[in-house]
């Protein structure tokens, strides 16, 4: 449906995340994957969704000189916001353990920003989902990290994995956003872009 509207556009997904790539397939979109390395650093003054917005826009920068007239570049970034700081991807088992332990019995926010870039404009959207964990046993946290090795995931966990099934007691907002992409907003924004042409 949306793919028909986008037939005159070339969708470029700049993400190595298999989950994000799968979402685009499930939206039945024709797209290509292009990757460029970006150092994911942000100014310390930024907070909350400002961080994920900044990083999503930062990931678009290396592509800007090569975009053609019908290209729509899509970049994104996900963070976990907890205790007034951004949780990125854990560097090792200890950091993953401390991150997950800090969620135990509490509510945190998962924020994903998506940046749409063309030759003529740039638009960034974001979604926030509140996720509540039960009180976790240390043995549960250690088992999850050892078995699932969540070092490629913001905040050190994947909602679709074992830890999500046993630990999450409440979720407020988009489930898919926690997986790494607010699919409903991507769909809406692409429709808006096409309709504005």
Which descriptors apply to this entry?
alpha/beta, 197 residues, 8 helices, seven-stranded mixed beta sheet, single chain, 37% helix
Question: Can you give a write-up of this model?
Answer:
It is built from eight helices and seven strands. By secondary structure, the protein is α/β, with parallel strands linked by helices. Strands 1, 2, 3, 4, 5, 6 and 7 form a seven-stranded mixed beta sheet that branches. α2 (18-26) links the parallel β1 and β2. The longest helix is centred in the C-terminal third of the chain and has 14 residues, at 183-196.
Q: Could you state the order of secondary-structure elements as H and E? A: HEHEHEEHEEHHEHH
Give the overall pLDDT as a whole number: 95
Structural class: alpha/beta
The Rg value, from CA coordinates, equals 17 Å
Shape estimate: elongated
User: Low-confidence segments, ≥5 residues, pLDDT <50?
Assistant: none
Largest sheet: 7 strands, mixed
The percent range for strand residues is 25-35%
Query: In angstroms, what separates the terminal alpha carbons?
Result: 17 Å
Percent range of helical residues: 25-40%
Number of helices: 8
The total of beta strands comes to 7
């Amino acid at each position: 449906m949306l793919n028909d509207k986008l037939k005159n556009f070339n969708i470029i997904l700049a993400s190595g995340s298999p989950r994000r790539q799968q979402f685009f397939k499930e939206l039945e979109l024709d797209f290509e994957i292009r990757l460029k390395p970006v150092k994911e650093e942000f100014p310390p003054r930024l907070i909350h969704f400002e961080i994920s917005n900044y990083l999503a826009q930062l990931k678009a920068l290396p592509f800007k000189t090569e975009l053609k007239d019908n290209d729509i570049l899509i970049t994104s970034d996900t963070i976990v916001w907890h205790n007034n700081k951004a949780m990125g991807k854990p560097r090792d088992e200890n950091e993953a353990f401390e991150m997950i332990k800090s969620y135990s019995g509490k509510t945190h926010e998962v924020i994903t920003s998506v940046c749409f870039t063309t030759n003529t404009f740039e638009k960034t959207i974001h979604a926030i989902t509140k996720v509540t964990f039960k009180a976790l046993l240390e043995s549960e946290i250690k088992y999850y990290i050892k078995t699932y090795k969540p070092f490629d995931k913001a905040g050190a966990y994947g909602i679709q994995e074992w830890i999500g099934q046993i630990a999450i007691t409440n979720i407020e907002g988009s489930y898919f956003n926690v997986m790494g992409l607010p699919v409903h907003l991507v769909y809406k924004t692409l429709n808006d872009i096409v309709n504005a042409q």
